[in-house]
Amino acid sequence: MVMAFYAVPFVFMNASAGLRNLDPALEEASRLSGASTFRTLRKVTLPAVAPSLGAGFLLAVWFGVGMFSIPAIIGTPANIDVISVRIVELLTFTFPPQTDLAIGLSGFVVLFVGLAYWLQLRILRRGRYATVAGKGARAKTIDLGTWKWPARLLVLGYVLVSTILPIVALVLVSLNGFWTPNIAWDNLSFAAVTEAVFQDATTLKALRNSLLLGLVGGLIGILGAAMIALYVARKRTALAKGIDVAVKLPAAISNMVIAVGILLLLAGAPFHLTGTLLILLIGYLALYLPQASIAADAAVSGVGKELPEASAISGARPSRTFRKVYVPLMIPGLVAGWALLFIRIVGDLTASAILAGTANPVVGFRILEVFTSGSFALLASLSTVLVLITATVLVVVLAYTRRASKLGVSTRVGGV
């Protein structure tokens, strides 16, 4: 249940970006032809957003198969084994390391991810989805009628169970100062949060480092992924396909294995990057560039050929076409992809546990330290601050994409 809750927001961001890029004229033409709302959804809307749904599906598979933190924290005490935790145990906590068995288990991870990647390629190659064309239109709101309140209750119930109640638990433990079922409401105070997070030099430094890495790493990752996605989408050559596979290949490997490999490669001679933020940035990009690539693929797939071809016919260079045509049309999907990278980097646990240290602490490393020591109040306080930061980023991103959708895509394209 927790892993499903964790994957839903990333799927939602990709799907919502695809829906905002959908041409409403297609749905309107279906309704004018006499099709019902359900038939329009099945025959027009879902095929139109198939690339975004495929991206969300692939991300969900990647998160589920390669997840380490949730199974380790919840499953290990309950004696529930999963492949990702078992691989980490074989490589890290077993002496001598059972590399051969870990590689064999990694083959299943490669199989699952490869199957999901193949399904996404099938969706993208079918070519039956709609793209953003040269004219803008606003989507029509569908009246659910008697299903309005059941739908609202379903959504509100999901938000309550997946978000509000866990956050309330974090806040109560943070303000109470310790974990207990008997809450003394008169003793709740912000002093515990302030002292644990903002008055502790190590925690405050870890928070600053994580925010800096999230901003810079998210920007570098999503821009690089966008350029690769454009090249792959427009060239359709064996080299382009090879580059696409190479970018997504790290997703088929355990995050722990990649982090250990980066540490062995860059920590010693001749690079000597141990204890620096640069090795963390490289590690985060290596781990999360595949997710950025999926988000960029969804954004690129929503751009039609009409406007780029018109730009080329008008004499614009490819760089100008990229800046004036592709970037404005891809911005909603790219912003969602940046938010995905930012949240993943700021809350990373696996790479942070290996690549970070006392000289370059980050939030994930600090959380692992606190969890090991058993200080649940400090853990809840740091988690509460992290939730507030990531929630603020999500709210800003959703507000921006909604505003961009209302203004219309066509108004943002010009100057060619």
TrEMBL record:
The keyword Transferase does not apply. It is found in: Cell inner membrane; Cell membrane. Residues 1-120, 207-397 form the ABC transmembrane type-1 domain. Keywords: Cell inner membrane, Cell membrane, Membrane, Transmembrane, Transmembrane helix, Transport. The keyword Metal-binding does not apply. InterPro entries: MetI-like (IPR000515), MetI-like_sf (IPR035906). It comes from the Bacteria. It holds the Pfam family BPD_transp_1. The chain crosses the membrane at residues 44-65, 101-119, 153-179, 211-233, 245-265, 271-289, 325-346, 376-400. It is a multi-pass membrane protein. Belongs to the binding-protein-dependent transport system permease family. This is ABC transporter permease subunit. The lineage of its organism: Bacteria, Bacillati, Actinomycetota, Actinomycetes, Geodermatophilales.
